[in-house]
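Backbones bend. To wit:
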Amino acid sequence: MKVNFTYDRSKDVWCLRNKGKSSNNSANPTEQYKQLVAEYGESPIREAVEAFINEFVAKEEIDIDEKIKIFGADWAEVSSEFQTRAEAIFQTKLPLDITAYLTVNSRCPYNIEKNFFFVSLQETQARRVVMHELWHFYTWYGLGADQEDKLGKEKYNNIKEALTALLNVECEDLFPKDMKDTGYPQHQELRQNIIEYWKNDKDIKSLWNYFRSQT
């Protein structure tokens, strides 16, 4: 499995327009969406979003082609080791290559069915975001694609987001210095509980079954 970094303007427009205002885990708009609305008003049309992106990239002096190279090189340093560890934990391999689309948005959604996720152009290194998003892919394939239907979207979302706390345990040395996976505020207690469980039982399926049984 490879992660291919690329830029697609239509994907960037979609990400900012549809995920800039809010998401499943945060009702707050991103800073980029706030700037977009301040300039073009609420519910901006596609052409307005495109214009904003052009202005933002120029103002921030972002070299997108250079970012693609930087992110690719950064991820290459840890890709093999990360996959080895993740595959051992989840007892599965990701079946297809995955595309990482760059975006001006600081919120980075993902789509497992279509094999892509986003990485913000504001990042200086890609690996933190990539490891976080790929952990969701491993969760999906390793623990069962039917889990969301069984648990319901909200409960599945809470557990799979909190599960990224294990990155700070199993992949701590793969993060850039002084960086870790922080997660969302509403998941902090669950994240800590997951880490405590993991200390005593490093079986990801047992862990998942335990927390899915909790109310």
Notes: The mean pLDDT is 96. The first helix runs from residue 9 to 19. The chain is about 55% helix and 10% strand. The first strand starts at residue 3 and ends at 6.
